[in-house]
């Protein structure tokens, strides 16, 4: 399994941690990177007392496109400096509207890289975009902390394992990255539910058959939440990548993240590879 095609959502401003991570990842894997800059169109309120002035709408459109072009140029320069095979794109999105057009860009790639929501510099629809990528793109999603990441080649990886289909998909998606790791830990948070055998043994055996050096660490009946348990483990063991499933349900067309997933994405300090 090889990582040969990477797609990244380009931040509208700032240090571009996700784009840099994607480009570094591509350099290490001889992969191609496509960067997508988004122009967020303003919403015209249906309840407005009077029609929005045409010149206002035109100016807002031009401003959104100009900001996206600036971000696109930033990506192109980063790619040039990295010497990585790349392509840049620009897409217009109605603020608060559907994201199917963005998903169409993302579905023909090995992995989507996107930055964590930055509370100091929030971007339109970032949280919804992350959720939609996870649930509707059909592609593994790698989230990069807004503070950035030291290196794209993860050496100390922790896999959050609960035996679910989402965790299984995340492990399969992470194999190209795991091949370059020095240490891989399968972390099982055992809440005392009935079950036979050693927790995590099956997935550890599977990874060992891929010539990966794997250890199992079981935390039984933690006194804190699953999210806090994972975050504390990462901090204590200096992991540089978390691999886990993304949890949630889609009811009444509204994405509802599971509590652990949402908390980890809000507080993560290292990249997280997720699949659903």
Structure in words:
The structure is a single chain. The strands form two sheets. This protein has a ten-stranded mixed sheet with strand order 3-2-1-4-5-12-9-6-7-8, with helices on both faces. The chain has two domains: 5-144, HUPs (Rossmann fold, 3-Layer(aba) Sandwich), CATH 3.40.50; 156-275, Rossmann fold, CATH 3.40.50.620. The longest helix is centred in the N-terminal third of the chain and has 29 residues, at 54-82. The chain has helices spanning 17-29, 54-82, 100-106, 126-136, 165-178, 201-208, 226-237, 259-267, and strands spanning 5-9, 32-41, 86-94, 111-115, 141-144, 156-160, 183-190, 214-220, 241-245, 248-251, 254-257, 272-275. The protein is of the alpha/beta class and 276 residues long. It starts with a strand and ends with a strand. It has eight helices and twelve strands. The protein is globular, with a radius of gyration of 20 Å.
Give a brief description.
The chain has 276 residues and is α/β, with parallel strands linked by helices. It folds into 2 domains: 140 residues, Rossmann fold (3-Layer(aba) Sandwich); 120 residues, HUPs (Rossmann fold).
